[in-house]
Amino acid sequence: MPQSGSSKKAAAPEPSAPLDVRLVVLLALAGLAAWLAFVNPAAAVAVGFGLTVLYTLHLMTKR
Q: For residues 53, 55, 60 and 61, what is the CA-based torsion angle, rounded to 10 degrees?
């Protein structure tokens, strides 16, 4: 005979808002990057290269 409460699973916390501030910022930056790539491909390549270097350094320092 199971005890009361022993078979219940913990409920996952529900998000407080459908769009998080970080998500909105990332979507805006992605839209800006897409517009930049359309208007000036050379600048988009430079930004992409800079972000790649930044991400690589982030992974190397593990911070």
A: 110
Cβ count within 10 A of residue 37: 15
Instruction: List all residues 6 or more positions away from 47 whose beta carbon is below 8 Å from its beta carbon.
Output: 33, 36
pLDDT at 10 over 70: no
Hey, what are 18's tokens? 């459908």
Number of structural domains, the chain? 1
CA separation for the pair 37, 45 (Å, rounded): 8
* Any domain includes 38: yes
The model's confidence at residue 42, banded by pLDDT at 50, 70 and 90, is very high
Domain extent, residue 27, equals 21-61
